[in-house]
Specification:
394 residues; Helicase, Ruva Protein, domain 3; 3 domains; five-stranded antiparallel beta sheet; 9 strands; globular
């Protein structure tokens, strides 16, 4: 199988004088032309790519107004893990079973994991984005906020035009330049793109075979432990010490067992009892409870949003045939205004919540845990109306 690779040269931090931003777009394109030609890309390809690259003001607006998840795990996962994705995910696994068997043999990656990302990113290729890829990348490369990153990606995209992976005129994707059925950036496509159907091209927007094998290559590169689990729903004994849960507090499976952590199906996966795992409570002690294995880190590397990663891992479980998680009517997430108020109070008390932005991020969760411990609340890192009311009264 053909794997495309290409190294963007002459574009390190050591020579940032080549970087240009906030200059007239036509001047920016001339600079990109020189850099592309210096990297050995043909004049014909460069001319075609630049002639179709237009400035998109809408991309800058979207970049400045990115919104983090402000919904609960229950609400988000109910929307993301829907009948369409479950039904068509299982169909895609069956349809491509021979290819998935090869992936399993080579990488030890289950089909459900690949199909989970495939679903979360584009609903199996149905929703790939409608932004002209070169224009989106060029616009962000011309902007000063992340110019180094996007200028390297734009040059890589021009190389992909030469490789016939992108069409200079017609290729469409996400507003931030991600392309294809698993939404990859150009440099990653160059490093990990695989021609799975043997047609001599990597067509991630059209070919299921290319998509599946490229996803496998990318996941393996992030350190996937072959034939190991990633996420398992568990039940906890009465009186469980909630402060032991959360990212950064890993314990061995044997230690969790001693604390009263039991798999929903009654038996832990067939893995070493000394393996370090993390207990995750995405919606507090009343919500679902999962034991995250080391392979869960790959979900976090794919998308560092805790909400996205836990939902993708849960979707993979459902595609494997597991039932919907158990939950005791968890407390809903605080409103935006309530979350801002909570962060302001915690910050005034000396806790680090990161930005006061109304988002329940990692630092806010950690601060909630600390104040819960101090006030005698169950320390599950999930802020409730009751906690906020008490803090407002102090």
């Amino acid at each position: 199988m053909l794997v495309f690779w290409f190294v963007i040269t002459g574009f390190s931090r050591a020579n940032q004088q080549d970087l240009v931003c906030k200059v007239p777009f036509s001047d920016f394109l001339l600079t990109m032309k020189d850099l592309a030609l210096n990297q050995g890309i043909s004049l014909e390809t460069v001319a075609s790519a630049l002639s179709h690259t237009k400035y998109l003001a809408s991309v800058i607006k979207l970049d400045r107004n990115q919104k983090a998840f402000r919904v609960s795990f229950k609400d988000f996962s109910d929307r993301a893990v829907n009948k369409y994705r479950l039904l068509n995910g299982k169909k895609n696994i069956k349809k491509n079973q021979i290819l998935f068997n090869k992936v399993w043999k080579k990488y030890g990656i289950p089909p459900e994991v690949i199909v989970s990302f495939w679903a979360m990113e584009t609903d199996y290729g149905v929703v790939q984005g409608n932004f002209h890829t070169l224009s989106a990348l060029g616009t962000l490369a011309n902007d000063c906020r992340r110019s180094e990153f996007f200028q390297s990606q734009y040059l890589a995209a021009i190389k992909l035009v030469e490789n016939k992976t992108l069409d200079a005129e017609k290729s469409l994707g996400a507003w931030a330049g991600e392309f294809g059925q698993i939404q990859m950036m150009p440099l990653d496509i160059i490093s990990f793109g695989v021609d799975g159907d043997g047609d001599g091209k990597v067509q991630l927007d059209k070919s299921h075979h290319d998509t599946i094998l490229t996803a496998a290559e990318l996941i393996a590169s992030k350190g996937w432990a072959p034939r190991q689990p990633w996420f398992e729903e568990v039940t906890l004994m009465k009186g469980f010490p909630w402060h032991e849960a959360g990212l950064g507090r890993a314990r061995s499976i044997w230690e969790w067992s001693k604390l009263g952590v039991t798999p929903r199906n009654g038996n832990f996966s067939d893995v070493d009892s000394e393996l370090k795992t993390t207990l995750i409570l995405p919606q507090g002690r009343k919500g679902p409870k999962f034991l995250a294995y080391p392979n869960f880190n790959i979900f976090m590397q794919w998308n560092d949003s805790f909400m996205y990663s836990t939902t993708a891992a849960y979707l993979a479980n459902r595609l494997r045939g597991e039932s919907r998680y158990r939950s005791r009517d968890p407390d809903d997430i605080l409103s935006f205004g309530q979350m801002v108020k909570l962060q302001e109070i915690l910050e005034a008390l000396g806790y680090d919540v990161g930005k006061v932005d109304g988002i329940l991020g990692a630092k806010t969760r950690q601060s909630v845990r600390k104040i819960q411990l101090k006030l005698g609340f169950p320390a599950d890192s999930w802020p409730t109306d009751e906690l906020l009311d008490l803090l407002e009264s102090i």
